[in-house]
Design brief:
The chain contains 17 helices and 23 strands. It is α/β, with parallel strands linked by helices and 541 residues long. It folds into three domains: 95 residues, Urease, subunit C, domain 1; 116 residues, Diaminopimelate Epimerase, Chain A, domain 1 (Roll), CATH 3.10.310; 227 residues, Metal-dependent hydrolases (TIM Barrel, Alpha-Beta Barrel), CATH 3.20.20.140. α10 crosses α11. The radius of gyration is 23 Å and the shape is globular.
Length: 541
């Protein structure tokens, strides 16, 4: 049997059980048929085989990001994006918004995404008065980069039904000034409620999905776990499945049953429909039932057991009480679902562990692989419980690079147990690295860099006791992502019989300086045996 494609002369990082480094790989149709040294794999080269000489560059399993927001990232590309436009002042932002208002029909939304008050010159949020000065004929919303807070103008609040008499929703705040007037700032569940009317159309979502997928492919992300979006979840899933079937979305998708606007209703709807984790195929599969437990690590609104170092009166926000969480996720567990929850602070993590413990006590199940998304402040006692309960953790190493300076201010020494990959390795707790994009950049090489170095963007140490090796970080972005979705027998490593989802880097990652890992680029991405992205055309044919 001759291969369709053979990679030779490479640094083939297999991520197999022995962490083997090989030289060559052969691909036939959508499957890996040989892995090994050149003399072995070259036997599969035939007259019509394309031979790609890697010239010592790294060949990896395709990156698997187990927590990102595909729809949100895509629709963010349709509006004013502070990150992509490198907007560094409110003055520049307002000029962009005025231009957009002049081009937008009256009554249609003006949306701004990726805003971060720490990166603009003024170091503050916009005010409702400033947004009203741009337009009162268009609803305007500015979404903070964490997607847990927004700032709206009067028109947007009016359309959402918020009045002076409106009470704060559970797990959220409609911020008011000392006179009781709206500031425009919507925090946590108030922000989520605003998006019940500020959501995108189906046409916009489909367009965004296609744009996002291509960018992820170019970054080597061959599979992703979609962690939810705004809007009614079942409709989003249908649009996602349609986009995969049409070829607009080229990545494999494991869809978490969670929504930023109403996760509980989404979960209950899917249970009533008889859908369960694992339904689907190798391209689109139903994932765990997901709830939100607390807020954002940079808000900061995550729920902690001890007050923030930066504010001794603040311990964050909880979306659910223990009884309610146990009821919703406990029912999902009893129906066969994998379950998970967004939990950043140690108080929130403890609640999720309590929920999992009770669910397993009532309905025992082996190999459940229940998850915790983020698990930001994972104290030692919580790590012990994770191990005992068999929980899979989904940490975000790039948060330490991008947000680490703020974490040092907000949480002090607790950075030493934030996203603690080294501790997880030592204790045998399964974990898979994720980006949580668009919260931070989706680039897996940035995540690997952050996990290996544990330094902030300004160069400060941020929990360097949690540094891991390059090979450990690669495994957490490949094999362990597959493990988190019960797919480790199909993908996540370069082994015979597995799906041909592969990534070629522009150099040897094992020979690179660890301080420069984030500078490494993806040169080629293969999904299902097809080259979906190729930066250079200079390979031997």
């Amino acid at each position: 049997m001759h291969a369709d494609i053979v990679f030779t002369n490479g640094e083939v990082i297999t991520v197999d059980k022995n962490s083997s480094i090989m030289e060559a790989v052969a691909i036939k149709n959508h499957t890996i048929i040989s892995v090994g040294q050149i003399d072995v794999v070259s036997k599969f080269i035939g007259e019509n085989t394309r031979v790609i000489d890697l010239e010592g560059k790294s060949l990896l399993p395709g990156f698997i990001d187990p927590h990102l927001h595909l729809t949100i990232y895509g629709t963010n590309l349709l509006g004013i994006n502070c990150v992509s436009l490198e907007i560094d002042s409110l003055e520049i932002l307002y000029e962009e918004m005025k231009k957009r208002a002049a081009q937008t029909p009256r009554g249609e939304w003006i949306r701004v995404t990726g805003f971060n008050e720490q990166t603009v010159m003024e170091k503050r949020f916009p005010t409702i008065q400033e947004l009203d000065a741009i337009s009162t004929e268009h609803p305007i919303v500015i979404i903070r980069v964490c997607n847990h807070t927004s700032i709206a103008n009067s028109k947007a609040l009016e359309l959402a039904g918020f009045t002076k008499e409106s009470e704060n929703p559970v797990g959220g705040e409609i911020e008011r000034d000392s006179n009781g007037e709206f500031t425009g700032k919507m925090i946590e569940n108030a922000h989520m409620q605003l998006f019940t009317i500020a959501d995108y159309s189906a046409e916009e979502i489909v367009k965004g999905l296609k744009l996002a997928s291509q960018i992820f492919v170019e970054s080597g992300i061959t599979s992703l776990h979609d962690a939810g979006s705004y809007g009614w979840g079942p409709d989003i899933l249908k649009l996602m499945k349609k986009s995969i079937d049409s070829g607009d979305v080229k990545n494999r998708v494991y869809a978490l049953i969670g929504s930023l606007t109403d996760s509980e209703s989404f979960v209950r709807h899917m249970i009533d429909e008889g859908v369960v984790t694992g339904d689907g195929d190798e391209w689109f599969k139903i994932g765990p039932a997901k709830l939100f437990t607390d807020g954002s690590s940079t808000g900061p609104t995550l729920a902690t057991r001890e007050p923030y170092q930066s504010d001794p009166t603040d311990t964050g926000i909880l979306y659910y009480d223990q009884e309610r969480m146990n009821e919703v996720l406990g029912e999902a567990h009893s129906k066969g679902y994998q379950i998970t929850a967004h939990a950043q602070g140690d108080r929130a993590i403890e609640m999720v562990l309590n929920c999992i413990e009770e669910a397993l006590a009532k309905h025992p199940r082996t190999d459940h692989r229940h998850r915790i998304e983020h698990a930001g402040i994972a104290s030692i006692d919580l790590q012990e419980r994770m191990k005992e309960l068999g929980v899979v953790v989904i940490p975000n190493p790039a948060f330490m690079y991008v947000n680490g300076d703020a974490y040092l201010e907000y949480y002090g020494d607790r950075v030493n147990v934030m996203y603690p990959a080294k501790d997880y390795l030592a204790k045998g707790i399964p974990f898979a690295f994720a980006s949580d994009t668009p919260v931070v950049d989706h680039n897996p090489l940035l995540g690997i860099h952050a996990a290996v170095n544990r330094k902030t963007v300004s160069g400060q140490d941020a929990g360097i006791c949690q540094r891991v090796t390059v090979l450990d970080a690669i495994k957490a972005y490949t094999y362990m992502g597959a493990y988190a979705s019960f797919d480790e027998t199909q993908k996540g490593s370069i082994e015979v019989g597995k799906l041909a989802d592969l990534v070629v880097l522009d150099q040897s990652i094992l020979s690179a300086e660890i301080a420069s890992l984030k500078e490494i680029k993806v040169e080629m991405t293969m999904i299902d045996g097809r080259i979906e992205y190729e930066k250079q055309a200079s390979y031997q044919k």
